[in-house]
Amino acid sequence: MIRYGFSTIGCPNYDVPQVVALARSHGFKGVEIRFLRGTVDLTSLAEFSPAGLADTRKRFQDAGIEVVGINTGVRMVSLDPAVRQQQRTTAKANLDIALGLGARYLRVFGGPVPAEQDRERSLDAIAEGLGEIADLTYAAGVHSLIETHDAFCRADSILDLYKRGASRNLGVLWDTLHSYRHGETGEETWAKLNDQIKLVHVKDANTATPEKFDFALTGEGTVPVGSFLDLLERENFDGFVNFEWEKGWHPEIADPEIAIPHFARFIASRGG
Q1: Are 97 and 53 in contact (CB under 8 A)?
Q2: Of the chain's two ends, which shows fewer C-beta atoms within 10 Å, N or C?
Q3: What is each CA distance from 92 to 36, 131, 136, 146, 216, in whole angstroms?
Q4: pLDDT of residue 237
Q5: What whole-number distance in Å separates Cα of residue 2 and Cα of residue 263?
Q6: Beta strand 239-243 with 66-75: parallel, antiparallel or unpaired?
Q7: pLDDT tens digits, one per residue of 81-131
């Protein structure tokens, strides 16, 4: 059964009570935490400190809102041991937050492959590093997910990481916009990755090409958001499909009070 939610990247300056109120008032079942109170450094916030986590978790639980995942920017593309260790440390710190909130998932990235690095060594480093993090978090009860993003928008690029030895404990967060704008149909992505897809992001755009993309209110752009949802329904996807409105990175786009309720109405119009 599909359940719907949103990422707090869409309401980057909200605090926990505001996030809870927005979710409840529009019938969402869950949220992913990326931004809160203007920052992505969740470890810097009292709400996610060891002393504050229990109260934060209770606020979401009392409202019937699941914290689905913690969305990090962790990448393991660097070949520098010091940078890789810093990324592991960041992953562990966010794992503690995920555990404290009862979140199922920790989002990570493959990242773009730097032109100055040997591509084969870089891909091996990504597979090894993300696999290591995935095994660590899985053992603790949290599933690390690589998002279809950057150099890993298409299914084959994700499958290549598994061929290079990445742990199968590394699941996939399917960002439908990024696979679509790189020329892959939903059916193609699903056929290759369905057993690893644990979470789905949707968003609309007017321009969606490999070179660039923008943002449009759901159903008003050119991305076939409805067809992705139809596919997931046909395949009996049992998980969250979350709206990712990148207001945190693009302050010029519509405010959360417009875009997130609009998405809720789009879902309701489908009978969701």
Answers
A1: yes
A2: N
A3: 19, 14, 8, 16, 35
A4: 98
A5: 15
A6: unpaired
A7: 999 999 999 999 999 999 999 999 999 999 999 999 999 999 999 999 999
